[in-house]
Amino acid sequence: MNSLSNIWIHPKTSVAGLLIGITTIAGVFSQHGITLGTAGSGTVVSLAGALATAILGLLARDPETSPATSTSSITSTAKLGVWALIALLLPFTGGCSGTTVAQDIVNWTPALQSAVATVDSSAALLNPADAAVFLAATTGFDVASNALVIQAKAYLANPSATVLAQLQSQVVVFQQQVNAALLASAKITNPASQQHALNEINVVGTAVNAIFALVTSISSKAAVARMASQSTIKLAAVAPYQDHGVIVAIVAEHYSEPVALARVQVAFSERSAIQAGF
Q1: What's the pLDDT score for residue 85?
Q2: What one-character DSSP code corresponds to residue 157?
């Protein structure tokens, strides 16, 4: 009875213990090849482990609260953890069809086109030398954006294996262009110009990587491996130049969800992509 009452008296500790248990079990399952099904380019087990780790991080970063508000704050955190778990697991347990994912891909295209249009006009805000670097880095964005939008709409209209293969190739091409642009813009010497250039590219990259994650979630392991082999500039190489605050804010706004949930989604997506070889 005391053990049960302690759960309610110390909910944050109890939630943390549960998450640690999930992480531990997920690690054991992975070592023994138990997957419990696929989750995009990873497995349900890896998803559960990554999610538990991310929520543990959220708990650890919770600000200190007064005794009067601590219980409600902890309860809210626990509820968020459960909400995030349900929200992220449903698409990978049969809750989303290929058509739903295809529509979600298309839903990202207006944000992508808007971001590319902003990039086109941003060079005028930089000094000539920095503008030249920025323009050279982003010169292929318009063509790549138009091609990706066309392929996304084509797949929604005809979700066949052939059209999906074309979409897979195009999203990798654009992601590689974004990665190359981040590396090139990082070489701009003027701090203000560099930050502005990286910010604009990060906005484009958020939409591209969101579409990329959705495409890989409906792709076979063989297709994901092929896409990874085409990715010469890996995510780890551009990680220092990605603004996760911007990325998370865009994802949260797009899906009309809490920032904390978007942070978990972004973290899991990035971890899955890196594990898949991107």
Answers
A1: 44
A2: H
